[in-house]
Amino acid sequence: MKLNRISLLRVHYMPKLFEPGILYVSEEYGTAMHLCACGCGLKVTTPILPSRWSFKDTPHGPSLWPSVGNWTQPCNSHYVIDDGDIVWCESWSPEAVMAGREHEKAKRAAYYDKLYDRDWIGRAWNWLKGLFAR
Fold this sequence. Notes:
The chain is an alpha+beta fold. The protein has 2 domains: 1-90, no CATH class; 92-134. Helix content is 28%, strand content 31%. The strands form 2 sheets. It has a 4-stranded mixed β-sheet with strand order 1-2-3-4, with no helix packed on it. It has a 4-stranded antiparallel β-sheet with strand order 5-6-7-8, with no helix packed on it. The longest helix is centred in the C-terminal third of the chain and has 24 residues, at 94-117. The radius of gyration is 18 Å and the shape is globular. 12% of the residues are buried.
């Protein structure tokens, strides 16, 4: 049974058993997990990192961005969690999935490149890498 809403439960450690309709968030470990909103029973893990997913707790419910796309699973579910609402999105073609993965990979690389260039350690590391790349 497809879900329309999800609520938040803050945890330190993830539980052994998950309940449908609950987004478990461990801010200490930067992880959010839930059972797939389609009802298939798949555990979905989303790392909460600036370069991956962002999590927000609102008065109406949790939000998780970007979308969850279970492309390697039989259900192929695709949805966004927005203020506790499950917003169902269209399925992607295999080509769209690959393009999305490449886009996310490039976005992460740009994030970490920028992060390392901000401090002297990152600049020194990049300089050393440049020496050996010649």
